[in-house]
Amino acid sequence: MTLFLFYAIVVVLGVLSMGFQMLASRLLSPHYGSTIVEWVWLISTFLAAFSTGSMLGGWISNVPVARRQRLQVATAAIGVAALAVTAFYSTPMLDWLELKFIPDVSQMNDQSAAGMNEALLVSCLGLFFVPVTALSSFGPQCVGWLAARGTPSGQASGVVYAVSTLGNIAGVMLTVFYLIPHYRVSHLMYGWLAVAALSLTALILLLRRPTPPSSQ
Amino acid sequence: MLALALTPVFAADAPPAPAAPTGDYVENFDTLYNSLTVQRLGTMVELRARSRRGEFLESAVDQADPLKLVVEYTRTLYAAALFQPQPKRVLIIGLGGAGFHRLFAQTWPDALLQTVELDPKVFDLCQTRLGFKPTAQTPVTIADGRMFVKRDTTQWDWLILDAFRGGYIPPHLKTKEFYQECAARLSDRGVFISNLHEGTELFYSDIRTIQSVFSQVVLFNPPDSGNVIAFAVNYKTPAITDPAHWENAAGLTKLFKGKLDLGYVSGEHIPIPDQAVATATVLTDDFAPVEFQNVVKSNNETKVPSGGTTIAP
Fold it and tell me: For B288, which residue in chain A has the nearest alpha carbon?
């Protein structure tokens, strides 16, 4: 049962991460259009967040237990708070950012204009980087937890990332083919926020459970 | 400093197309946003966009008669003159092959026809293959249409929305918020014109969304094209839904010197399908399932949706 819950949470975190990327594209397009340049910055931001989150999570995995637990709570709280900012304030923030960086028509005669790149860089970092980094930081900790229960470390790593990637795929499919056609993006963002808060809370509690003696 | 560092990395300027081949030819170009085919057969040059549903005729020019409006729906765009017969400033979002532009520039040589086109390669091909030569009166800006409208402060007499990528329609150009931005850029008697595709649920959502912003909307249906052109205005009187209040089509036709019969075009007026529109969705930035509605067939007879006309499966 514990393992089932563990894998279920890993899947949910995968769904949240990549489904969020699809929602992010809908948040950006009214402000920056629907261009390949927008996707460059969106995908790059998410990959940078995955990378940073993995580094952060790997470091948290190896600190003493008491500090690790505090860092887990702090990371989850920061991630949920950042997601809340995106859910509630993305439209006014993007309104401000796009006009700040690309104020007039004369600066728009080329999609590659630096103003466009800067605007997208700041928007993507400000709205999407922190929550995805926080979600990603739990990946290595899940590997560490599974390895501590007796699964060989290589296998634990493979299983966690395989399950997480399946969650990524499910997240993209579910968001694009069902959620966006049926629900408002703002409502979906509220849903993302609630599910992230619940799943991270559940995961933190799960990671605190003592390792079974038989697997020591 | 960051701007300088980033610009070369993400420079989107594609090298210009080589000179057009002589004689008949077919060329394919994969651009940042489109897969394009340019074909010359005799004096006719076509610009087509490839998509999963075949090739869509974006524009065509008869080089023996460049002012001829080859693609049916481009004639219908001129029905805007029935509501605003003296366009001094016109904005068109979507260049295509500039099939609309040549006749406009001849008919109203002092008017400004500003074009916004997303794909720089389309602009390049339009010049090198379809013979379009932008002037001070027909400038082209490479940008997203919505970003342009949001920043531009001109009051347009005609604002034409004709932005497709093959069969793909950018969702952010279909929403109530965008139409509100367009409505705010119209002159007192300005007309908003949008090229719609009938035959899917999106068609009814399009009309309902336009109705949610503009005071009056009328539809024109070029025969056998699959396109419906919506004309919308901010004012309530005179009633443009009543053809008796339209400008004299016969008089306007003289302006076009035999290239366009507005009397014929005015006969393309069709009623709004109120029953289907009443239950349709108002598209917003928050909820715009455009890609999905665009593949759900409506219960009405389905014609070929297009930026122009579908050529091949």
Answer: A181
